[in-house]
Amino acid sequence: MVIGAIADTLGRGIESVSGTVSETFFEPVIRLGVTGLARSGKTVFITSLVANLLDRGRMAGLEAASSGRIEAVYLQPQPDDTVPRFEFESHLAAMTGTTPHWPESTRSVSELRVSLRVRPNGLLSGLSGPRTVHLDIVDYPGEWLLDLGLLDQSYAKWSAEALSKARARNEGARFIARLEAVDGSEKLDEATASELAREWTRYLNAARDAGYSDCTPGRFLLPGDLEGSPALTFAPLPEGEAPRGSLAREFARRFEAYKSQVVKPFFRSHFARIDRQVVLVDALGAIHSGPRAVEDLRQALSGILGSFRPGRNTFLTSILGKRVDKILFAATKADHLHHEQHPRLQAIMEALVADARRQADFSGASTGAMAIASLRATVEEMRRVGGEDLGVVRGALLESGRQAALHPGDLPADPSALLAPARDGAEAWLDGDYDVMRFAPAPLSLRSGEGPPHIRLDRAAEFLIGDKLR
C-alpha cells in the first residue's frame, strides 16, 4: 500500500509537471485573480472585461486588439470542476437589458475561462501561425483576502489589534460595552460564545457599511455554509488568563481552527495559483466616509500586498508554486468624476499603495495604479455655476431612477492633502465633504462589435495580460 501511494503521488506529480510544460510551450494559461473590498465592483469588472474581449470595438488600449492580432475569443468550461462558473451571461443581461441593473455582488469563489486565438508579432509573426492563450479569471471576495494576514498572527495579537480598531470606531461601542461583562477566564458557555460572535459580526458589518476596509475575519461577513459553525463562533477578548476549559482558551483554539481549516485551504486551492492580480478599490467611497476610512484603506491595501508573495515567475516556480508577478490597484467608479479629475484620482490611488508598491517592486513584481470605470453609467456636462464652468457627471440615481448631475467636490492635486490628515487621525476633512451618489447603469444601444462602454478598462487589460499576447 505504501509503494502504491508513493507511485500514485509520483504519477500525479508527473501529470502536473507535464501539464505545466504543455501550458508553458503550447497553450499558455494566465490565471487572473480579481478581488476587491466592499462595493468595489468585482462582478461588473469581470463581466465588462469579458464582454469587451468578445467584442473588441472599445479596446484600443489593448495592443493585441487594436492591431487586429486577436483573431477570435471564445468561452470554454473552466478547468476546475469543483469551482462554480462565473455567471457571465446573466450578469451581462442584468447590465445591458432593457431595464439595466447592477448584478449581484461576489459572495464566493467562481471562475471563467476565456480563450484567445492570437497571432504573434515581431520576428515570430512570419514563422508561426496563431496560438491559443487561455485566460482563467478567478473571482473571490476581498474580505477573504484580508484573512491571509491572520496566518502570521496569534489569537492574542489579533485580539489586541481588532479591539484597538473597534474602540476607535463608533460602530464598535456596542461590542465593547458587551465585553465589559465578560470574563474570558471563566468556564466556556456556548450561549455567551454565540452572543459574542453575533455581536462581533454585527460590528463588522456596521464598520464595513461605514466605509472601513479592515474588517476581519472576512468569513464572518460572508459565511456561506460555515454559518453557525464553531470555526465562526469566536470574538476578540482582552489579554488575560486562559485556563483549560475557559472561554478565552476555546476562542484561541477556534481562531487557530479558522486559520487551518478555512483560510489555509482557500490559499492552497485558489490564491497560491494566481499569477496576475487586480485589486479593485472604492477610493471615492472611502474619501466620502472620511479620514479614518482612508487611513484604514491604506493599511488594508498594504496588508493585502503582503499576502501576494510578489515576484517574477520562472519555469521552475511555475511548477513548484507561482508568485504573482503583476498587480494592478484600480480605483473604480471613475465615471462619478468629470475626466478632468481622473488624474487626481489616479494620483490618490498611487499614494494609497505607495508603501505596498515599493515592497513589490523590490521583490521583482510589476505593480500599477489606475482610475477606471468598468461600465460607464454617466455622461459628462459642463455647467455654469457662479460665473465659472464646472465639470459634472449626470446619470440615473439608483434609488429613484431620477436623473441627477453631480460635482462631488474637487479632489486635491496633492494626495498628501488627504493622506496626511488620514494618518493623523483627523475626524473630518478640513476643506469640507466629498459627495457620493449611487448611479444605476444606463440603457445601452451597442453597435456590432462593441462591448459595454467603460473608462480605461482596455488599458487595465493591457497592463495585466498584454505581454502574454505578444
UniProtKB/TrEMBL annotation:
<dbReference type="Pfam" id="PF04317">
    <property type="entry name" value="DUF463"/>
</dbReference>
<dbReference type="InterPro" id="IPR007413">
    <property type="entry name" value="YcjX-like"/>
</dbReference>
<protein>
    <submittedName>
        <fullName>YcjX family protein</fullName>
    </submittedName>
</protein>
